[in-house]
Amino acid sequence: MNDKIVLSTWPTPLERAPRLAAALGLGGADLWIKRDDLIGLGGGGNKARKLEWTVGAALAAGADTLVTTGAAQSNHARLTAAAGARLGLDVVLVFPGTRDSAVNGSGNLVLDSLFGARIFWAGDSDPSAMADVTDEVCRQLRDDGARPFAIPFGGSSPLGARGYVDGGEELLSQLPDVEHVVVALGSGGTMAGLIGALGERRVLGVHCGAVAEPAVTVAGLAGALTGRDIAPDALRIRADQVGPGYGVLHEPVLEAMRTAALTEGLVLDPVYSGRAMAGLISAVRDGDIRPGQRSVLLHTGGLPGLFGHTETVHRAVDGLRAYEPEGASPSTEE
Ligand SMILES: *Cc1c(COP(=O)(O)O)cnc(C)c1O
């Protein structure tokens, strides 16, 4: 079955990052950024590649409503809303919490509403129960005469992960001798798909704390995708960047975000791509990635989510820096 649809213009750019490479102790030609943050749908990010497959399946099934779930700041939910808008499909997003807890919804929530998605607030149901709540919402939609299609959390089914087999093959055509691809590991489909294209040894996943057993999750998806038996132990996964937990910004990630911003004008997000960068930095420090090896950071996007965490970032960088002129002040003082 190949019902894939096109949701952006491909390929995404692959750029060198020489000043960032130097800051890490790598050579100028060693480090590349795969700019999937620049995917041309709904603010960009990795989830769009998976949606080309999952929304393709929804259309093939005759659906008129996309239903998905995630945290309220989910980039996947935002891009599902954007895909629905582009294709003329209704979208219902199932989030934990209440409308009040997000009354001044910022970041991705602003875009969800701009794209016309409706939100079902699941209250304080257990996060592990969200799949059941989503099933229930689909049942209600069917009772209301709609034809819903549920896309799993993060778009990470074996079908959705095919989007990153595509992404990995695209990268290989741009940089055939790539040795390391560093990627944030959330729901796992992105890393699983990359393994489908690049094999286990070239893909380094940086666990972000979104799933309980990252190696088992990714091995399961990659196994289902490739039809090979993939052992969790064979995967390269770093768990040293989870810190206090999913969605909490901690010092190494902030430092990675600052370094990328100050050397390349490159924006990373506090939940995923900032962690991937922090994992890359620690992989260089402990010799897992060495100078002279071709390394790619997959920039998975997440910029809108950053604006759902602005207080954290402000607190962490001590707010705005003032410019205080040293010479004669041009002010209106007497
Ligand atoms: C979802 C997400 C990831 C992780 O991708 P998974 O396929 O869920 O592992 C990485 N970066 C960003 C910005 C994301 O939104």
UniProtKB/TrEMBL annotation:
**MF (Gene Ontology):** lyase activity
Enzyme Commission identifier(s): 4.4.1.-
* Keyword set includes Lyase: yes
Residue stretches making up the Tryptophan synthase beta chain-like PALP domain: 8-301
Asked if the keyword Metal-binding belongs to this entry, the reply reads: no
Q: Which domain of life is it from?
A: Bacteria
Keywords carried by this UniProt record: Lyase, Pyridoxal phosphate
What cofactor is needed? pyridoxal 5'-phosphate
Q: Which Gene3D superfamilies match?
A: 3.40.50.1100
InterPro entries for the chain: ACCD_DCysDesulf, TrpB-like_PALP, TrpB-like_PALP_sf
| Family statement drawn from the similarity comment of this UniProt entry | Belongs to the ACC deaminase/D-cysteine desulfhydrase family.
Q: What is this protein called?
A: D-cysteine desulfhydrase family protein
**Organism name:** Streptomyces kaempferi
